[in-house]
Amino acid sequence: MTHSFPLRVYYEDTDLAGIVYYANYLKFIERARTEFVRSLGIDQAQLRADEGIVFAVRRVEADYLAPAVFDDELKVLTTLKSSTGARIVLFQDVVRGEQTLFSSVVTLVALRADGRAARLPAPIRRALDVAE
């Protein structure tokens, strides 16, 4: 299952050269991850309130392949690579049409409020199993 999140590049996303500032790709994929998780029926605010569990980025591997510019229509494609009891690994690509502009592998971990690793509740593990 690949989740698609559309977005448009705004002037505020660009740098002096008129291309998307590199750090903004991380914002783009963050938004897409939130919508991917939501599409699985996972309410992150409810997870925090009920279980005291939040997701945190542990690792990002990023490749900047080609620039995006003002007014480009982009998509962030998110695919679940793997999941364990407390970790989720995602492939996330930013594309313009058929061209991949940015490619990443993102590792998320489940944490409790004190920063210790937490096991994902069974309903979330089942939702992730369906997405694999």
Which descriptors would you attach to this protein?
single chain; 132 residues; alpha+beta; Thiol Ester Dehydrase, Chain A; five-stranded antiparallel sheet; 26% helix
What can you tell me about this protein's structure?
The protein has 132 residues and is of the alpha+beta class. It has a single domain (2-131), classed as Hotdog Thioesterase (Thiol Ester Dehydrase, Chain A, Roll), CATH 3.10.129. It has three helices and five strands; from the N terminus they run βααββββα. A five-stranded antiparallel beta sheet has the order 1-3-4-5-2. Strand 3 (73-83) and strand 4 (87-96) form a beta hairpin. The longest helix is centred in the N-terminal third of the chain and has 16 residues, at 24-39. It is elongated and about 45 Å long. The mean pLDDT is 94.
Describe the SSE topology.
Elements: E1 2-8, H1 24-39, H2 44-51, E2 53-64, E3 73-83, E4 87-96, E5 99-112, H3 122-131
Antiparallel strand pairs: 1-3, 2-5, 3-4, 4-5
Describe the structure in brief.
The protein is of the alpha+beta class and 132 residues long. It has 3 helices and 5 strands, in the order E-H-H-E-E-E-E-H. A 5-stranded antiparallel beta sheet has the order 1-3-4-5-2.
